[in-house]
Specification:
The protein is an all-alpha fold and 243 residues long. 71% of the residues lie in helices and 2% in strands. It has eleven helices and two strands; from the N terminus they run αβααααβαααααα. It has a two-stranded antiparallel ribbon with strand order 1-2. The N and C termini lie far apart (49 Å).
């Protein structure tokens, strides 16, 4: 992907005839669905039931795995992202379309769906609202990169434990308390800092939609996860998840 423009496979006439492509938002939904269904399906297959709390946590853990990959891309393509920020800023002025919306609706070639360069645009478009992601010294950049590298293994651990109760409930609860608490705490701090230092070019409406709404799952789901994790420790079993 050139450094000063979007992948032309997204926009060139006839590009879809050369190679298969998929809209970004559709690919995201498919990946999250593929990650979520095995957990819910495995429970139904082995136990013959469905539990709302279990399903919500499996969905959230699956979403976090996708975000972790994006956060690794943030680290791997940090210099490239700075170039893309300027591209999307110019593009916004020229078209009047929000970069985030334009990126989500563009198509990426199937051969490049795992390319860190492609997913660098997640951060380049988000940086139109929060430019701190172009600064490696900022809180947002460092806390997200840390999440990307540190939380995949405990995320998968809880995914498996909540589905098959293969760990003792207190152990799973301790892992959950650590993980969900840090998600809630770090996200709350980030949102508080952003609100206090909101940039002039982002409206209050955009802040609610693109910042608060996109970050709120890491507070709301984390609160649910904390509740479940504490119950696992206190009860000593998986009854909170319907087992």
């Amino acid at each position: 992907m050139p450094e000063n423009r979007t992948d032309q496979a997204h926009s060139e006439p006839g590009a879809h005839r050369v190679r298969l492509a998929i809209p970004v938002v559709l690919f995201m939904v498919l990946v999250i669905t593929i990650l979520t269904l095995p957990g819910i399906g495995a429970r139904y297959w082995t136990r013959g039931d469905f539990n709302v709390i279990h399903a919500l946590l499996i969905l959230f853990l699956s979403i976090n795995l996708v975000i972790c990959y994006w956060e690794i891309c943030l680290f791997l393509r940090r210099d490239y992202i700075k170039l893309r920020i300027e591209y999307w800023r110019k593009r916004w002025r020229e078209t009047g379309r929000k970069p985030a919306i334009e990126f989500l609706t563009t198509k990426i070639p199937l051969a490049k769906v795992l390319s860190p360069t492609v997913w660098a645009d997640v951060w380049a478009t988000y940086s139109q609202f929060d430019s701190s992601y172009a600064d490696r010294r900022s809180y947002g950049y460092n806390v997200d990169v840390a999440n990307g590298f540190v939380t995949p293994i405990p995320t998968l651990t809880l995914y498996v434990a909540f589905t098959f109760d293969v760990l003792s409930a207190p152990v799973a609860g301790i892992v959950g308390v650590i993980l969900f608490w840090q998600w809630m705490y770090t996200t709350s701090v980030y949102c508080g800092m952003f609100s206090a230092n909101r940039q002039a070019r982002i409206s209050r409406g955009d802040m609610y939609i693109y910042v608060w709404a996109t970050n709120s799952p890491w507070v709301l789901f984390a609160l649910l996860g904390l509740y479940v994790s504490i119950r696992l420790i206190v009860n000593g079993d998986y009854s909170v998840l319907g087992y």
